[in-house]
Amino acid sequence: MTTIVKPEVKTAEKETVKKNKSSVYKTEQLNLWYGSNHALKNIDLDIKENEVTAIIGPSGCGKSTYIKTLNRMIETIPSVKTSGVINYRDKNIFDKEYQVEELRTKVGMVFQKPNPFPKSIYDNIAYGPRIHGIKNKKILDQIVEKSLRGAAIWDEVKDRLGENAYGLSGGQQQRICIARCLAIEPDVILMDEPTSALDPISTLKVEELVQDLKKDYSIIIVTHNMQQAARISDKTAFFLNGEVVEFDETDKIFSNPSDERTEDYISGRFG
Amino acid sequence: MKFVNHEEVAAKTKTRLTKNTLLKGVFAAATGFGLVVLAILLYRIVTQGSDYLSFEFFTSFASRIPENSGIKAAILGSVYLMLVVAPVSMFLGVGTAIYLEEYAKRNKFTNFIKVNISNLAGVPSVVFGLLGLTIFVRFFDLGISILAAGLTMSLLILPIIIVASQEAIRAVPNELREASFAMGATRWQTILRVVLPASIPGILTGSILALSRAIGETAPLVVIGIPTILMFTPDGIMSTFTALPMQIFDWTKRPQVEFHDVAAAGIIVLMGLLIIMNSIAVFIRNKYQKRY
Ligand SMILES: Nc1ncnc2c1ncn2[C@@H]1O[C@H](COP(=O)(O)OP(=O)(O)OP(=O)(O)O)[C@@H](O)[C@H]1O
Ligand SMILES: [Mg+2]
């Protein structure tokens, strides 16, 4: 079996840290249908704060569907029906009274394809704060700088903040999108294959960024790249045909998975 | 086994190229035909009307004597008419397009509405005139006023504005809406900050083309009963009025040949107005395109 081995971490130490962490997202018996297509089946996942949680699995297994359910973006598709519970910070996001706009100000999302607005770099980053009512130019300036620094792109764009974001390379655009997401100072960041459209160098930058960001944010990242999952995540969930086959410490998943299907997948025997 | 026989392909290349050259000629001729006819039309109108085009032409009312005739009442009437039509039709048209594209659920009923809006654009303008006469002039008792005519004209061009705006809104990529929603924006904030800025060039182009149609349209005004000769200028939207196309129409009906030249001068003014309107559209469009 070919395993991607992560440098050994003293498990005992890690265990105690884990115990103290509280959950950001607790998914219980989540089911989701696109019309009659049962895309997510009885999902149970407990996602802790200040961790990077990777979601892996073959194409079509429901990774994007799950991550889009976490900020209820999935509701933009009319045929979608859900059952079960997703508690975000102990409140069920499916509750009738739950304000989806409020949820999304706390849960940022970075999409697979970079999707900056056809506006200036500055206006892209200031978009979120502005829609939440921040008008003060000085505060916006500070948010823009802080977010661009946070996304490790400040030095590349600081002299051209007024230029259209469409003039940037794909990798830069993706980091602009990450910065745009940081500008609303979220609690959780959802990333759906954020590096799949990027070259290796940009990918590395985004990966380093994710490592950095986890100090302040909880990150849930979908990836097709096993090495990436092994490198940057603390926990890994393996999805297969709409079910969670295994969810555990990334080290454990990649060195000693308990389920045979997980082992087959990470060693490249299917998927 | 190969499926492409390169010798055969080479043999056919020549005919393909000839066909291409031939069709290029046909399309150029089609363009040329339109241009030539337009040029002749413009030439005739300018040579006919330029003698009557003077400062007094704008400041005098209509008259029995061709030399003393002017378009003061007509041009002011047309401007007033536009002041009613532009806001009313754009508000209703863009509003409807936003509702249908952004808010309404996709179902059979909304599809039915969407299809029929385009059909409405093909209804003859006389029919809209009759509608205006029945509803605005008589039922709402607005009389033969700028408001009644303006509302009628708004209805007439509404379908064009709706369809153009819908197309412009639909052309905005969905990823941009998703990016906005994912940051906690409401639908209205997304419309205002993402959808409209990206679609405003298309919306404006469609709207201004529609407005140019309204400013040149005569039939609905005739049906409503707008007078052709008026010796005073309108003093509000409830006032009666006459419009440029009505005035031109009246002059062309006159037996004296001189009046036909006066009509040509009126047409020059009308075309001038259209050019100004289209320039405004181009100006706004360029301004927005620079920003996005
Ligand atoms: N908009 C949609 N309408 C209907 N069915 C959908 C839609 N989006 C996804 N599905 C279905 O839901 C299932 C899960 O799709 P999803 O996009 O979540 O997979 P994924 O794990 O993200 O795959 P990939 O790795 O290729 O991105 C698939 O069977 C797919 O066909
Ligand atoms: Mg996906």
From TrEMBL, chain A:
Q: Does the keyword Protein biosynthesis apply?
A: no
For this record, the Gene Ontology CC terms, alphabetical, are: membrane
| Enzyme Commission (EC) number | 3.6.3.27
Keywords recorded for this protein, A-Z: ATP-binding, Hydrolase, Nucleotide-binding, Transport
The superkingdom listed in its UniProt entry is Bacteria
Instruction: List each copy of the ABC transporter domain by range.
Output: 25-266
Q: Which Pfam families match?
A: ABC_tran (PF00005)
Q: Which GO terms describe its biological process?
A: phosphate ion transmembrane transport
Residues spanning the membrane: none
Matching Gene3D superfamilies, A to Z? P-loop containing nucleotide triphosphate hydrolases (3.40.50.300)
**Does this UniProt record's set of keywords contain ATP-binding?**
yes
EC class of this enzyme?
A: hydrolase
Write one Gene Ontology MF term. ATP binding
Write down the NCBIfam families for this protein, in alphabetical order. Answer: 3a0107s01c2
- What protein am I looking at? Phosphate ABC transporter ATPase
Automatic annotation (TrEMBL), chain B:
Gene3D superfamilies listed in its UniProt record = MetI-like
InterPro entries membership: MetI-like, MetI-like_sf, Phosphate_PstA
Top-level taxon of origin: Bacteria
- MF terms (GO), sorted A to Z: phosphate transmembrane transporter activity
Q: Give Gene Ontology CC terms.
A: plasma membrane
Q: Which residues form the ABC transmembrane type-1 domain?
A: 75-281
Which family does the entry's similarity section mention? Belongs to the binding-protein-dependent transport system permease family. CysTW subfamily.
Q: GO biological process: what's one of them?
A: phosphate ion transmembrane transport
How is it placed in the membrane, per its record? Answer: Multi-pass membrane protein
Q: Major location, coarse class? A: membrane
Q: Which UniProt keywords apply?
A: Cell membrane, Membrane, Transmembrane, Transmembrane helix, Transport
According to the record, the segments passing through the membrane are: 21-46, 79-100, 120-140, 146-169, 262-284
Query: What PROSITE patterns does this protein map onto?
Result: ABC_TM1
Natural source organism? Jeotgalibacillus alimentarius
Please give the name of this protein: Phosphate transport system permease protein PstA
Where does it live in the cell?
Cell membrane
